[in-house]
Amino acid sequence: SAVISQKPSRDICQRGTSLTIQCQVDSQVTMMFWYRQQPGQSLTLIATANQGSEATYESGFVIDKFPISRPNLTFSTLTVSNMSPEDSSIYLCSVEMVDEAFFGQGTRLTVV
Amino acid sequence: AQSVTQLDSQVPVFEEAPVELRCNYSSSVSVYLFWYVQYPNQGLQLLLKYLSGSTLVKGINGFEAEFNKSQTSFHLRKPSVHISDTAEYFCAAWDNYGQNFVFGPGTRLSVLP
Q: Cα A22 to chain center, whole Å?
């Protein structure tokens, strides 16, 4: 199993600014995943973060907007850059093994 | 690629009544299927999972699900719901090709007094 600590849990940000979300896992994992959950919707995968290489982004998401760091096997950050109100969502990090996915508590972002 | 469908976006039900939340998946290969619950302002919590073996899977909080390969379904059931079961429920599948989870759109279960 894996326990994931994610912070901040929520934030209200001004448009045009950036927010960095941190995700800490209690064990070493190869891949970490970042999701966006827009209001009333399901989870959309943003990118997969591997330690020691660039993140792999899903269609519709780009590195300039959502830069990701993965400095070691237990930690990752997602930055939401140059925010607009459309970025208001819950952002979740996860660790996924074939028999279960573990999630952080999520970061509820509101852009005003 | 794997895809997961949840036919009901919202399911209102009275307390102590039974409930079934529907889930269908697309795949012609072995599948690993999951149900997650998301309570308000919280992350996702695993309810139950099917990896192999018995097609009837029992999970936490009195929920169970049945894997039906011929119908490509994995419906979630509970014989008697409580107010505290009010939450968003996500069906998910492990995508062998992408090596990641694929989530359904979610079903909002509202338990009414």
A: 8
